[in-house]
Amino acid sequence: MLKEDRHNIILEETSTNGSSSFQLLCKKLAVSEDTIRRDIRELDSRGLLKAVRGGAVSVSRIPHHYREREHTDIEQKKVIAKKALTLIKNKQVLFFDGGTSVLELAKILPADLNVTIITNSFPVANALEDHPLAEVIFLGGRLNKMSFATFGNETLKGISKFKVDIYFFGICSISTSSLSCKDLEDAELKLAMMQHSVKTVGLCTWDKVNSESTYFIRETKELDILITEKDKSASPSKPFTKLGIEIL
Amino acid sequence: MLKEDRHNIILEETSTNGSSSFQLLCKKLAVSEDTIRRDIRELDSRGLLKAVRGGAVSVSRIPHHYREREHTDIEQKKVIAKKALTLIKNKQVLFFDGGTSVLELAKILPADLNVTIITNSFPVANALEDHPLAEVIFLGGRLNKMSFATFGNETLKGISKFKVDIYFFGICSISTSSLSCKDLEDAELKLAMMQHSVKTVGLCTWDKVNSESTYFIRETKELDILITEKDKSASPSKPFTKLGIEIL
DNA sequence: CAATATTTTGCAAAATATCGCAAAATATAG
DNA sequence: CTATATTTTGCGATATTTTGCAAAATATTG
């Protein structure tokens, strides 16, 4: 096996898992730990990953405060993302907003899926960086440094240029009457994305169901599909079914 | 067997597997390892694959990531960035393109500087994340996964909405007659940024001075200031001074 | 601070690369 | 067709690089 091949495998392992260990890698590649150690040091010096004690972590331009938010309820979000994935077909054009469940979906997008993703979220764009087929259109605008996404009039105008197949909506708060969130500009953005997509799919962990926040986005009944981590037969989903929303 | 046939087999083997080794190839083709070695060296020089220790890897597999570029000549780039910093005043609005020297400038921007930075580069936006005062406007468009920056018509239209104070131009190639670069879309973008700024400041490591690339951007004389890591009294900067360009 | 795990360092063996050269193959000229 | 030049190929000797091991140094944990 070529050193180059080893390097590629190490990079792939590191970027897909976020990290990799000497122990695992030296077993997988059938070389000594020292060799892996030297490989990782070399890749580090080239800036392709970061060597740490015990192995390596992937370099990411995405700030840590975002990462922290990301890690809450990660398992539920993965379940939600898997369900959402079944809705995506080849050649579709999709809106992805800055929600963390949506980000999870971006991460598990299969490599053979050929889609165009329009987003205002840096983390989403970053997750799709190594995807071979996904075309990414980034929405311009003023950068919000907290959520690491763009907002404002420019972003809204950008959205209005499209009419996409599906909008994957990261839900902040949902009640039987309204969809709402904690930030005015985020509310404006989410409304615009709903208006410029054929179908809106809400991604939502259970704890956000039946809650309301300051900024109204739109009536809940405008939602087409709602995905949570629970089974669709779970009782509190009934009121939503009555509104004509499909539960997944 | 013709040499051409061997070359074709080597290329096919390399591109289908992503890599190929001398050992395998010399067995498969029933020639000595030296012959394969020479073949691969020739194919490398023609840019059809990349020779590495032990064999060859396919060129498509080697993404020219900015992450890799970022680490070369880092010290020179820091010197350049420090000089560029002296040009920036409070309340100014600036264009930053995706050059690595420009990125270095974004990294060292003092915390008390209150500026608006308009960029198409994710790394630049990311570098400014922790800056308390810098407002960041991100230019939308199609995301290029290699350079991790946006390009295309949308991006150009975004640029045309502004007339900024200074454009910090990451130079790819500069001769006394022309500014040029290796990518058509990058050339378009750089031209647009020049046209929509009052002053253009070129950031350029010495090794790029007096070189030319495929895509013409604009006449060199349109540049207002040129910054390199060398002292301005360095002799080869004279021809540029003659064009009315200030050297820093 | 001791016990343990991890990393660094120097080193020798193995693998790989380079160089010069001569034999073989191919091309060119008369 | 023959003689000569040119290119290609394989071989052996000699660098250079890579690899795994063991001891020493360093970091981590309780």
Descriptive report:
Two copies of one chain form a homodimer. By secondary structure, chain A is α/β, with parallel strands linked by helices. Chain A folds into two domains: about 5-55, Orthogonal Bundle (Arc Repressor Mutant, subunit A), CATH 1.10.10; about 65-245, Rossmann fold, CATH 3.40.50.10470. In chain A, about 40% of the residues lie in helices and about 25% in strands. In chain A, a hairpin with a 3-residue loop joins strand 10 (about 175) and strand 11. Chain A starts with a helix and ends with a strand. Strand 7 (about 140-145) of chain A pairs antiparallel with strand 6 (about 135-140) of chain B, so a sheet runs across the interface. Chain A binds a DNA duplex (30 and 30 nucleotides) through helix 3.
Secondary-structure blueprint:
The structure is a homodimer of 248-residue chains.
Chain A: H1 3-17, E1 19-21, H2 22-29, H3 33-45, E2 50-52, E3 55-57, H4 64-70, H5 74-85, E4 93-96, H6 100-107, E5 116-119, H7 122-127, E6 135-138, E7 141-144, E8 149-151, H8 153-159, E9 164-170, E10 173-174, E11 178-181, H9 184-195, E12 197-203, E13 215-219, E14 225-227, H10 238-242, E15 246-247
Parallel strand pairs in A: 4-5, 4-9, 5-6, 9-12, 12-14, 14-15
Antiparallel strand pairs in A: 1-3, 2-3, 7-8, 10-11, 11-13
Chain A binds a DNA duplex (30 and 30 nucleotides) through helix 3.
